[in-house]
Amino acid sequence: MDYKKTANLFKALADENRLQIMEILKDGEKCACKLLEALQISQPTLSHHMKILCDAELVSGRKEGKWMYYSLSKAGIKNAKTYLKELKISEGK
Amino acid sequence: MDYKKTANLFKALADENRLQIMEILKDGEKCACKLLEALQISQPTLSHHMKILCDAELVSGRKEGKWMYYSLSKAGIKNAKTYLKELKISEGK
DNA sequence: ACAACATATTGACAGATTTCAATATATCAA
DNA sequence: TTGATATATTGAAATCTGTCAATATGTTGT
Fold first, then answer.
1. Mean per-residue pLDDT for B47-60?
2. DSSP labels for A43-76?
3. What is chain B's percent helix, strand, coil content, to nearest 5?
4. pTM beyond 0.90
């Protein structure tokens, strides 16, 4: 198991603003400008958070003209689910 | 949804040493001294990590004489699973 | 009570993370 | 091409986190 990669994945989920972004994206693809409206953070800060979420494959981005559209990505979410699924509680002594 | 609590939960999983601890505990309850042997960290650092894992309810501790036994706890793991499960990818526009 | 041991707490430091202002890059419209 | 707009990057400051040495607390055996 790759501890570094897994830690990075959970790090991406370990921030209140990023959780709120994920929450908004549950509703479907959104433009960066919409996310900026919803959060009380500056534009560079949003851009930084989006990079972290994209790097973790929790979110994917699509550029259309001068706009960036973001949506949830299955890959990262699946990785996290898989990790948790493997946390079986054994009765080993 | 409680962003702070959820962020804390994922923060607890966002560290390589703590992931390794979880990995070891998958095998069943372990004494703190065993964890200390397995990890390349000092005793106070281990104690600090265990507190974070316990606070997130990912691990529970049991004191027996002068020893502490730790094991995986269902509550935190379930909370994380539930969060991920709710990350449904909708087609809403 | 005292010594030995296991774990927890405190205090300090280094490195990581979040944040914003300033600036850069890219796209569109006139 | 120029100006306006959307997003990304850079650089710096404040805060948070992981770490260890030193010390405290709690337990067991003598």
1. 98
2. HHHHHHHHHHHHHTTSEEEEEETTEEEEEE-HHH
3. 55, 15, 30
4. yes
Q: Which two tokens stand for residue B87?
A: 């990350």
DSSP conformational letter for B40: S
Nearest residue to A81 (alpha-carbon basis) of B78, B65, B45, B11: B78
> Which of these, B17, B16, B26, B28, lies nearest to B69 by C-alpha position?
B28
Percent of chain A exceeding pLDDT 90 equals: 92
H helices, E strands: number in chain B: 5, 3
Number of Cβ atoms within 10 Å of the Cβ of B78: 12
On strand D, nucleotides with any atom < 7 Å from a protein CB are: 5-11, 17-22, 26-28
In angstroms, the Cα distances linking B26 to B21, B71, B72, B74, B77 are 9, 8, 7, 12, 12
In our burial notation (b when 16+ CB lie closer than 10 A, e otherwise), range B50-77 reads bebbbebbbbbeeeeeeebbbbbbeebb
Contacts of A30 in chain B (CB under 8 A): none
pLDDT-derived band at B88 (thresholds 50, 70, 90) equals: confident
CA distance A46 to chain B (A): 17
